[in-house]
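SEQUENCE-TO-STRUCTURE ENTRY
===========================

Subject: a protein chain together with a token-level encoding of how that chain folds.

Sequence line: the amino acid chain in single-letter code, read from start to end.

Question of interest: how does this chain fold, as expressed in backbone structure tokens?
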Amino acid sequence: SKQQQDNLKELKQKATERKTEWKKIYTKVVKCIKKLTSDDLPVKRQTIKLAVIVPPNKKGGDTLQFSNPHVKGQKLRVKVPKDGAPGTKITVKVPAPPLGDDAPTDNKFPRDVQELLDDYSQSYDGWCQAHADYCQAAPGDTKFTAHKERMNKFDNLLKIFPPNLITPVDAVYLRKVVRRARQNKHKRLKTEAALAIVSPTSKAEKHDNSDNDDDDDSNDEKENKKNNPPTIDLVVPVKSSSFPEMKFNLNDFHKD
């Protein structure tokens, strides 16, 4: 019927819009991830480059022995290139030094990257549901399942991360990042809502002009009490076994 066709068209359009939305966010996430440095994503350095100077008694084709300055006591050998004359520099790869106790090992995702990952995750989930609704209403059999497709949301993103990270990034890891970002965002919004409560001073400004005079008098009285607090004369007895009898007025101890 025409109503079914219109409904199917609407579902298809919604699914298409959701797909366009998550793809845009995905592009932003990729750009942010590629900008992360080794400080954000510590990597395992198996080898590092080292410049070695060919000594006067060596020439091209000779074997040169040298020390690895990054690993104490380690001796290495390298073959001098054919065009390697004495005094020239050759670049070699040597084993990297072991990580120190204070070396960073945990990945650090900036807040904007965490929130982008959360936005992408929610947008992708929305598309999965919209596409599943369309497939369910469309004629013919379909094997698309929203739940299964949601599990694949990070597959392409994982290919962007360096493979030699000290702390590997997998789908489970990214789900934890997204969950933590969502929780932190909820806490911030809750705190902002609490701080947005109108203060008594702001409420007082909304009173009529007739109330302002009374408020001024009240404020003056409070200010006077603040500047001139009531005093009580007390007689402090000397060290003794007998003390004079004193009478106190309870009004002197009354608190406003």
